[in-house]
Amino acid sequence: MLNRETLLHTLAVARGDEPADLLLTNARVVNVFTGEVLDADVAIAGEIIAAVGTGYTGKTTLDLGGQYLVPGLIDTHVHVESSMAIPAQFARAVVPHGVTTVVSDPHEIANVAGADGIRYMIAASEGLPLTVFINLPSCVPATHMGTAGATLGADDLLALRDLPRVLGLAEFMNVPGAVLGLLGALEKILAFGDGHIDGHAPGVTGPWLQAYVAAGPSTDHESMTAEEALEKARLGMHVLVREATAARNLHALLPVITPENARRFAFATDDRHPADLIEEGSIDHSLRLAIAAGLPPITALRMATLNAAETFGLTDRGAIGPGRRADLVVTPSLKDFRAVKVFAAGKLVAADGFPVGEWPLPQADENRVRGSIHVDVDALSFRIPAEGTRIRAIGVIPDQLVTDERIFEAKIISTDLTDDTEVSIEPVQSVEKEAVSDVSRDLLKLAVIERHNHTGKVGLGFVHGLGLKRGAIAGSVGHDCHNVTVAGVSDTEMRAAVRAVKDLGGGLVAVLDGKVIASVPLPIGGLMSDQPVEVVRAQMDALLDHVKELGSPHHDPFMHLGFLALEVIPKLKLTDQGLVDVDKFDFVPLWVG
Fold first, then answer.
1. How far is CA 143 from the centre of its chain?
2. Using an 8 Å Cβ cutoff, are 166 and 197 in contact?
3. Would you call 168 helix, strand, or coil by DSSP?
4. How confident is the model at residue 416 (pLDDT cuts 50, 70, 90)?
5. 15, 47, 66: which is the final residue of a domain?
């Protein structure tokens, strides 16, 4: 908010009565209001754009040499925690790519630490050259079918509403709760009905979508087909085109974007790992993909700036004009967008892909978001007694968060067969036959272990398509309850992987022959590292290289693994409480028939 002195200075610069604090000259200014590219200078007074035109002077002048000047890019929906970096380190990854504002949903850390987690994220993002707005997590836990580390009701959320940079309510994943007006869901919708409510409605269509929109959600980032996106746009939703690490939906949605409806679309990254953020980029990556696929550059830029800002009522940014925040990006080309200079609030903060100057390191108390792995590894049992011959398995779909249901003949062994019996510290007890992994068919045992309350709950199932031929992988990143998820070729390997996650205090691991071969420690909530993002990226690169050696062909199998526990995205998922058919919104048995 401008104070009197700042406004008077801005007005004086705009009139030409005082020199600008910073004058950017010889710029090709992209005007996202009118779709024009104008040769102009930009006069900046403190943090604010005072004027766009000619004839101005400045205390400091920077000649842009005819390069394009565009508004700072805006990510409309992101989970900072998914970068595995604290907000300050996340900023170091995305700001050099031209992203100056993000709308964050901290429901990952909230599912671990509740309100303390949200307060931590707000404190940890204060004063950065990246503005981190917050939508309060609407679904902690996401449903009653998974066990989280906290529960946030309507009153809990209202108590946080006036915290800095809070915009509204984050993605409302409980679609049945919203559509049917169920107790708990209805109270949250009514509590935030006068503000913004994010949507989350993958595959929802017809009357249920009509009711969902009527309930209040006005955005959605879960569209997977052009038809789905168009139906949502026709009902007045802002469609957030997602290009994440595991969910790459951009190319599927672009065909539906036309000059007539483009103002209803913006970009989002949702969940991206460090290597993708650093190498591919963030919203700038979406821009390049969209433009290369034929979307007009200014249309794409408008989606990444003005559309995004207006979606959330952020009238102080998203365009280059008088009175707007001086978040600006210099690029030599609109067709191949690359940020060569980035300004945040009128200050140069990045150049040629690297941070510039001293960035503040916000002070945030991490004590309440550490030490979150409470699992008795020795007491765990991964045995699945044979109760039939056929099983349901979660089917992994490459580059998507959705899964399908696949039916297999189970591989069943007798515990007294020397050739097939796995070495285990568990007593055989009375179990005579059990279902086990079958590497020859890419059918791996999967487990989700409650890690917040030391309950010992373990959900057991199978996953098809993950690709491991040896060893096991595990992580404390398991959306959205963030229990420990593990998949492997044997119970012994799975136990070793879970033990490694616990020993790290949270993280991602790969094991082979019972030994850790690579890991990424994530001690902050079991979700984020306390190391620089470049270190996290190097650790993650090494981990992914080792997992490829174990057989997985996926770009990032840990992103897939983490979402196998998310019981609000179709079709079949596994929580600590059991196997969930998301379409039925209920548990289903592992055994068929």
1. 19
2. no
3. strand
4. low
5. 66
Distance separating alpha carbons of residues 207 and 290, to the nearest angstrom: 31
Average the pLDDT over 290-314 and give the result: 97
Q: Tell me the percentage of the chain whose pLDDT exceeds 90.
A: 92
- Which pTM does this prediction carry? 0.92
Which residue range(s) make up the domain with 206? 72-316
425 and 477 housed in the same domain:
yes
For residue 226, count other CB atoms closer than 10 A to its CB.
15
Helical ranges in 369-522 per DSSP H = 491-504
Q: Is 244 exposed, middle or buried (0-12, 13-18, 19+ CB in 10 A)?
A: buried
d(CA 439, CA 424): 19
Peptide bond connecting 433 to the previous residue in cis, omega within 30 degrees of 0: no
Instruction: State whether 26 and 171 are in the same domain.
Output: no
pLDDT at res. 245: 87
Alpha-carbon dihedral sign for residues 73, 74, 79, 80: positive
Nearest CA to 514 out of 425, 589, 578 is that of 425
Number of domains in the chain: 3
Cβ-based neighbour number of residue 439 at 10 Å: 16
Q: Is 329 a member of any domain? A: no
In a domain, 342, yes or no: no
Phi/psi at 499 (5° precision): -60, -40
Report CA 551 to chain centroid distance, whole Å. Answer: 26
Q: Do the domain assignments include residue 339? A: no
By mean pLDDT, which of 1-10, 22-31, 314-323, 545-554 is the weakest? 1-10
Any residues with CB less than 8 A from the CB of 436 and at least 6 apart, and which? 384, 411, 412, 413, 420, 422, 445, 490, 491
In a domain, residue 351? The reply is no
Tokens representing residue 323 in the block: 């009175």
Q: Smallest Cα–Cα separation from 528: which of 151, 165, 166, 273?
A: 273
Dist CA 167 CA 169 (whole Å): 7
Q: Where are the beta strands (DSSP E) in 299-419?
A: 328-331, 341-344, 347-351, 354-355, 390-396, 403-409, 411-414
What digits encode the pLDDT tens for the residues 430-485?
Answer: 558 999 999 999 999 999 999 999 999 999 999 999 999 999 999 999 999 999 99
Q: What is the CATH number of the domain that holds 181?
A: 3.20.20.140
